[in-house]
Each structure stands twice: as structure tokens, then as C-alpha cells.
Design a protein that fits this description.
This protein is an alpha/beta fold. The chain has helices spanning about 5-10, 15-25, 40-55, 70-75, 95-105, 125-135, 155-160, 170-180, 185-195, 200-205, 210-225, 230-245, 245-270, 280-290, 295-310, 315-325, and strands at about 30-35, 80-85, 115-120, 140-150, 165.
């Protein structure tokens, strides 16, 4: 996700400011705990910190990305940067001991060493106690980065020896920009960014053919509801149910439909820049002139109500048929 500290500023400004300041003043802590939800950039920041720590041409606090150290860290084969991940369901004592042995040797390339423990909350009690000794007697020029989505599951004695950095869930605009930077079409990026605040999940969804088809089917249903009202129940029967064929997909379908009506509302309020379905904005504007704000708000409410009923195990086809009858009124 993150390629430079300045890019990180738009995702995790607090984390960026703190780490950049520490790099500049040469006051990096010997142990950090990065905590936050999946997809918030914790591991990417760990790699970026490693590059800044080892970079041969550090400029201010930005790594050059071009020197031998930066390139080897990027490709995951720097001899003094070690990553520990769960072996099966947990991180075992043997893995931490192997890491300690590695660190008792002098650095291969320099006197510096850095290790990252991913899913640190999955350490067994023995592994955690083994790590504790390691954290209590830090070597000079050694940095530990512990990464977790559930830091409440970790030993307090470990937490107290680390500098805690919390990564906040990403805003849709940040995810949208990341997707566009990864060559995802803007009309797909804007929609996917509303559905998840996990960058990896967003990238996966944006490449999913089922999702691209779902978006088109939702737009078609919207067109039918606004121009050929009587045909909506038949469309649900012939086209919709076959594509949205389980509860998770049905919920996604309702979300995608919800965003269209919210877009109509945005147009009516003069907030065109908030429109998610930018590729059909002319159609939305045409519709916005023919309908009252109150009517659009009622349609939004009826879709939200349908989402609730979906979770109450109402028959999905019946649910959708009733919904489209409601939506085509007014």
C-alpha cells in the first residue's frame, strides 16, 4: 500500500509524523507494537521503517528505494531483516529462539538488525516469555516491530516494553486513491472503497469479475425502476436472483443499489463531487429533477429495511420483489 512516508501521511498521519520525527532525530525506539485492523498498512509501514533504518542514501527521513539495502528489503532477502510469522496457528518458542540465535551473531552487512513479528498475538505463552527476555535486554542498533490486529490478547509485560502505534481504519478516499494508483478504473475504485476499509480486500474485489457484473446488474435494475417500472419484478426473477445467489451476495447487491439512491440525493443537494457512480451521473441528474428529496429518502430507508429483513431470514426473492414494488412508487 505505502511506498513512501509522504504517501503514508494521507493514510496514517499520526503514525507517519511520529516515526518520521524519530528517524530524523535518530531516536527510534528499540521495540514498536503496530496495532490496528487488517488492511490498515501495518506491515507496509514496518517495511518502510526497515528501509529508512538501513538505507545508504537516506534523505531527511525518506529511504532512496534504489540502494542495495532498500532493494533487498523490498524483495524480502536482506540478511539483517527477519520476519517471523505463525507456523500453523501459532508462533512457537523455537521460532523466537532461532531469532535470538540469529541476533547473537553480529550483523552480516552492518551492526544493525531489525525483526518483525507478524500476528504477534499468536505467540504461545512460552514464545512470548522467550521474547520478553529479548525485549528486556535490547541490543544497541536493534529494532523490534510487533504487528497485531488484537493487541488485547498479548501479555501486559510485552506491551509495556513496546511503543504502541495505533493504525486507524482507512477512509474511503484513501482506499480509492490506492486502487486508482494500482490501475483500477475510477468508477470501480469509488464503489469498492465504500464496501471495505481493508486495502487488500478492496484490491481483490476490484479484480473480481462477479463484482463488475453485479455493478452492471444493479445499474440495470435502477434503469428499469426509473424508466420501465412494471418490468422490475420480472427482472428480479430472470436476472437478479441468479447472480445474487447467496446471502452475502444479496447484501452486496442491496448495498450497491443503496449507493445509487444516495447518489441521487447527493445530486439534489448540489454535491456532485460526492457521487460514487460518476459514470452514470447524467442519468442520476435527470432522475433527480423528476423526484422529490423526500421520495429519495424514503427509497433509501426501504433499502436499509430490506437489508435488516435479509438478516432475519426472509425469503430473498420475496424480499426483492416487495422492495422493487416499493422503489418504483413515486
Amino acid at each position: 500500500m505505502t511506498k513512501s512516508w509522504s504517501e503514508l501521511g494521507s493514510y496514517q498521519p499520526r503514525v507517519m509524523k511520529l516515526l518520521a520525527n524519530s528517524i530524523q532525530k535518530d531516536r527510534l525506539a528499540h521495540a514498536y507494537l503496530f496495532e490496528g485492523k487488517k488492511g490498515t498498512g501495518k506491515r507496509e509501514v514496518g517495511i518502510l521503517l526497515a528501509k529508512s533504518f538501513f538505507c545508504e542514501n537516506l534523505e531527511n527521513f525518506e529511504p532512496c528505494q534504489m540502494c542495495k539495502n532498500c532493494k533487498r528489503i523490498q524483495s524480502g532477502n536482506h540478511p539483517d531483516v527477519h520476519l517471523v510469522e505463525p507456523d500453523g496457528l501459532s508462533i512457537k518458542k523455537g521460532q523466537i529462539q532461532a531469532l535470538q540465535e540469529e541476533f547473537s551473531k553480529s550483523g552480516v552487512e552492518s551492526s544493525k538488525k531489525l525483526y518483525m513479528i507478524n500476528h504477534a498475538d499468536k505467540m504461545t505463552v512460552n514464545a512470548a516469555n522467550s521474547l520478553l527476555k529479548f525485549l528486556e535486554e535490547p541490543n544497541a542498533n536493534t529494532i523490534a516491530i510487533l504487528i497485531t490486529e488484537q493487541y488485547h490478547k498479548m501479555l501486559n509485560t510485552i506491551l509495556s516494553r513496546c511503543q504502541l502505534l495505533s493504525f486507524h481504519p482507512l477512509q474511503p478516499i484513501a482506499i480509492q486513491q490506492t486502487l486508482i494508483n494500482s490501475n483500477v478504473a475510477s468508477h470501480i475504485a469509488s464503489l469498492v472503497a465504500q464496501l471495505t476499509n481493508d486495502t487488500e480486500a478492496a484490491l481483490e474485489l476490484s479484480k473480481d469479475d462477479w463484482f463488475a457484473q453485479a455493478r452492471l446488474k444493479v445499474i440495470k435494475l435502477y434503469e428499469i425502476l426509473t424508466t420501465r417500472k412494471g418490468q422490475a419484478p420480472l427482472y428480479i426473477h430472470t436476472e437478479w436472483m441468479g447472480h445474487f445467489n447467496d446471502k452475502e451476495k444479496q447484501e452486496t447487491g442491496l448495498d450497491l443499489l443503496l449507493y445509487i439512491y444516495k447518489d441521487v440525493l447527493s445530486v439534489q443537494l448540489g454535491k456532485d463531487e460526492h457521487v460514487i457512480y460518476q459514470d452514470i451521473i447524467q442519468q442520476l441528474k435527470h432522475h433527480a429533477l423528476q423526484i422529490t428529496q423526500r421520495s429519495v429518502t424514503e427509497k433509501v430507508t426501504s433499502i436499509l429495511e430490506a437489508k435488516k429483513r435479509l438478516h432475519a431470514n426472509v425469503n430473498p426473492q420475496l424480499l426483492m420483489e416487495q422492495l422493487v414494488l416499493t422503489l418504483q412508487e413515486g
